[in-house]
Amino acid sequence: MILLNGPSSSGKSAIGKAMLPLLDDPWFFLPVDAFSGLRSTNHRRLLTDAESAAMLQRTRRAYHRAVAVLAAEDNHVIMDYPLSEPWRLADLLDVLSPYDVTLVHVTCDPAELARRELARGDRPIGLATSQRVYAHADHDLTVDTTTASPESCAAHIVHNLFQPAPKAFTRLRNRL
């Protein structure tokens, strides 16, 4: 399993898509945004902040379990998922405990993140730089998308995928 962790607009999705042709089957690319996109959106009723937070947490917890179900059936998974809240990592450490997870930090210069957010037009400007996605301070690999292409980042990750143990998830699980 590969977890691409980085702020919004850092290039996680592009890297995930670029990795698929480089890996042997069966690998699934399951970005959290695609999973969230499966959820209904009822514009007739606005959720309160508390209702929205609870719904998003349920969705994220379900995402963690969906990834684990794919892995339980001998599939490999690339996750595009920011570890922007401490509970996300804690839950993943538990749910994914039977699996080999490579944690990849996807970084990008803040000015470039702001430029990408503006170009996308579907995210609040400043979201990427406000996300605390590296608070756990451990990882297996880092790629910087400021100037590197998604394809070169994907090739770097695939080339370095099989590292000696213990990996970051094991170290974090032992520490936490």
Automatic annotation (TrEMBL):
Gene3D superfamilies: P-loop containing nucleotide triphosphate hydrolases. The active site is at D33. InterPro entries: CPT (IPR012853), P-loop_NTPase (IPR027417). Pfam families: CPT. ATP binds at G6, P7, S8, S9, S10, G11, K12, S13. GO terms for molecular function: ATP binding; transferase activity. This is AAA family ATPase. It comes from Kribbella sandramycini.
